[in-house]
Amino acid sequence: MTETTVGREPVQIVEIRQPFCAHVFGTAPCTATDPADRKCYNTRATCRDSANFALGTPLSLFFATGRVAEMEIEGAPYIIPSLVSVSTTPTRINVAGSNSNASGFGNRAVCSLVFNDHPHSDLRVDPYVGGRSWNPLSADRGSYWTRWMARNKYRQNVLIIIYEGYAGQALSAMVKRSYFMQSISGPSGGRVSIQGKDILTRLEERKAQAPAASPGKLYIAINASVTSFEVTNAVVGDYPAPGTVRIGDEIMTYSAVTASANGVTLTISARGTDNSTAATHAVNETVQWCWRIVNAPIDTVFQALLETYGQIPAAYLNLAGWATEVGTYRSAYLLDALISIPTPVVQLGDELQEQTLVNLWWDERTALVDLRAIRGIDAEPPLLTAEDHILADSFALSENPDGRASRVWISYNRRDHVKAATDLSAYAEVFIDANLESESDVMYGEPAIRKINARWLSSSALANTTASKIITRFVDVPSICRFRMDAKDRAHWVGDLVQISHYLDVDEFGARRQRIWQIISAEETVPGEIVEYEAEDATLYGRINYVMANGSADYPGPSAPFKNAYIGNAAGLLSDGTNSARIN
Question: How many distinct structural domains can be found in the chain?
Fold first, then answer.
C-alpha cells in the first residue's frame, strides 16, 4: 500500500536507537572480569571497563500497537507491542524574524510518546541474558521500562524515529521523522511517557555560548604598556595563537602563547585594539578569549555556531546545501565581527538570520538542519488547488500585522566591542530605508519601524541590501494561510514553496489569485491520512529571471519558460498584462 492506495491501512512505528557498546564483555579490548550475573548490558551506565567503552552500531528497539506489532514489517524484525500514543508539534519557521515572540530559529519540533510498561524476557536487549541465573520475567526483577531506564542513564542523545506508512510497506518506504530524547517519566499507572525534541533544542537547553568562557586569570597585576604576562589556571589550548583577548574593557591581540610556571604566557602584539583603550588590570581579572570572524561566508559562521559552540554533530547539518544556497544567493555577505564575551548561541544565531535574511530550521524528515535564503523564486513551484489538493472547508486566511515594516533602521559597522550589542553608541553608522507612501492616511495610516542592531554587518552595502529586502518583503501586512491535504500530497514539507489557487483567495475583481507561499509548518494531524499546513505569502519575494541571449524569441504568453526575462512596455507590463522582468 501507498498514499494513493484505496483502502490503505495507516501504521505507526516508533524506533528508539539505544547507544550500544561495540565490544563483547570480557573479550579484548574489554578487560572486565565480573561474574555472569554482573555482566554489563553494553551501555555506558552499566559498563565494567569504562576506559575501553566504545560506541558501536546502536541497538534499534521498535514499538507499535498490538495490531501493528502482529504484522510482518520488513526492516523491523522484532516489534514490542507497547505503544499507546504518539503526538507531535511541528517545526515552525520564523521568516526573517518577523514574529517578535519567537526565536529566529522558529519553534522547536516536539514529540510525546506514551508506552505501556510490562514484563519482558530481555531477549534482544540483553546480549548476555542466556548466562544469567535469574529470570527477567520474575515479578521481583522489575519491568521493561524500569530496567531500561536504569541501564540507560545517559539518554539525552538517544535518537527517536517515528515511522508513518501503510500495511504492507517496508520500513524503508515509510515517511520518518527524527527527534532526540529529552525526558522520560514513569512508570505511573502502568505507563511511561517520553518526550523528544529536535536537535536545535540543544542550543537553548544547554545554554551554549560563543565564545566559551575562558578559565584564565591574570597571575599578577599589569600596567597599560606591558607586552607579555602570565595567565594562571590555563593551558596553551585555552588560547589558540594568534588571537584576541579581553581583560575588563580592554581588547588586545597576541601573537604567541607558551606554557609557563604558573599557567601560560601570552606575547602581546597590540594593546587597546578594536577602539578600546589600554589600561591597568588587577590580579585575578579574567582573561577572556575573543571569537574574531574575518571575511567569512554566512554558512561558515553558522557551522561554527552550531557545530563548534552548540556541539551539534556535523552529520545533522546540511552543510553542502548551506554552501550552495549561500554561494548562489548570499555570496556578497562576507562577515566581520568580534564577539568579546560569552554570548548565547541562540542570540547570535537569531541576529545572524535576521541581518542576513536567511532561515535555519530542523527538518524532521531528513534529520538535517536546513538553510534557505529569503529570496526571489527561481523555479516554478507546484500548484495546489481547491479542486485537486486542498481538503474542503480547511482553507483559512489570516494576517500578521506585527510583521509589517514600513521603515527599517539598521545600526551597523560596530566600533565598540565592549558595550552591549543593543547599545546604539556601539555602532559607527546607521542606515535607514523607508516606504513612506505605505504610512499615508489612505494606506496603513501609521509607521511600522523595525530596528536592527547589526553586529554582523560592517558595510553600507550590506546594510542597504538587508533593509531594502525587508521593506520589499514586509511593506504589506504578511498573509498567512492554513489548510489541510490528504496524505497523497504529504511530500510537500516545511521550507517548500507552493502556488495556491483557492476560491477564498481572490483579487478585487473576484478572480482567483495564484499566489506563491512558503510552507512554514507541517504536521500529520491524522498519521497517514491528513496533513495540516501553515504557509506565509512569498509573492513579494519576486521572481529571479535570467537575461536571455540576443535574438531570442519574443514573449509567447503564459507558456514562456519560468526563468526567462522579457522586456515590457513603459508601464512594465507584457502583452497579456502580466509584469515584465526588472533589474533590481
Answer: 6
